[in-house]
Amino acid sequence: MATILGMGNPLLDISANADAAMFEKYGLEPGGIILAEERHAPVYEELQARPDVKYIAGGATQNSIRVAQWMLQEEGATAYMGCVGKDDNATKLLDACVADGVSARYMEDASTPTGLCACLIMDKERSLCTSLGAANNYKVEHVKQPQNWAIVERARIMYSAGFFITVSPDAIEAVSTHTRESGAIYCLNLSAPFIVQVPPFRACLQKTLPDVDYLFGNETEARAHAEACGWDTDSVEFIATRLSLISMNEKAGKTRKRHVVITQGSEPTVVALNGKVTLYPIIKLDPRKIVDTNGAGDAFVGGFLAALSKGKDVKACCEAGNYSASVIIQHSGCTYPAKPDYSFEPSSCSLL
Q1: pTM, two decimal places
Q2: Is there a contact between 128 and 143 (Cβ–Cβ < 8 Å)?
Q3: For this protein, what is the EC number (predicted)?
Q4: In angstroms, what CA-CA distances link 341 with 74, 324, 336?
Q5: Is 298 a catalytic residue?
Q6: Each residue's pLDDT tens digit, 51-74
Q7: Catalytic residue among 234, 298, 313, 341, which?
Q8: What gap in Å lies between CA 149 and CA 47, rounded to an integer?
């Protein structure tokens, strides 16, 4: 059974080259990321008709789990749960996820179409247009089904992007509180400023934090959290420190400390543990090699979780995360070569 379980909002990424006329037709801008409106509905079929169309299993959490699987290159290492429709796009999404080696356990909602993300590419620039569809409809009853709960019970690492808070806080609570008994590692990502700015979402985050062993985010999300909480500071290191000191629940009878991992783009990654901050350098690339930075954060988490599942320390986890991110940003979308040029040395460290 899988060592790493992701739960999130699955999207079928439909990626193809587009021209300026198509961008103008749908009112899209290079580098833009928007939620689809009614006028954007035809863009998905139009992209699917392109000869160079590619289908990628997308959504923030699913991206991270796919990258973790790619880094590990071990059959059955990862699993993923989320909600899809009962349509041709769900079949394409399942095929893409399985092709990447991830065990996909999708809940099906026959009344709602599968979530889609149109990825229009023009001169190395992308525009993303997302229709969440069935991804919004995941229910906690799915994870509690015996065959799915068995995956939860055996997984040693659980991960969700913060976007899942907007969909199924009940599923987050069921899995995160289970880790108190199992001793498994629970990981959560801030994901976007609105997650900490909208009161119901922030309340779910605050309720879950005592069970979170690893909290991820970027500098923008960290500062948004500080502002929402009334912390009078702009220092990412201070914010990470304060987040690391929020008390944790005991797990399997042991007291644990939270790692807070904040990426800063081209600047060093900030990691806070028990009030102490350490900075870890990133891999700096020649700008001419960078194709698309949109998946960098998801890829970093994927590499980090892969190393964590191998019992690596935080330094090695950051190195693995930086490697995977550096590879993904040299490709369009969250895609990668057949195999990583990376190996995990044997480790005597305990996963927990």
Answers
A1: 0.91
A2: no
A3: 2.7.1.20
A4: 15, 10, 11
A5: yes
A6: 989 899 999 999 999 999 999 999
A7: 298
A8: 37
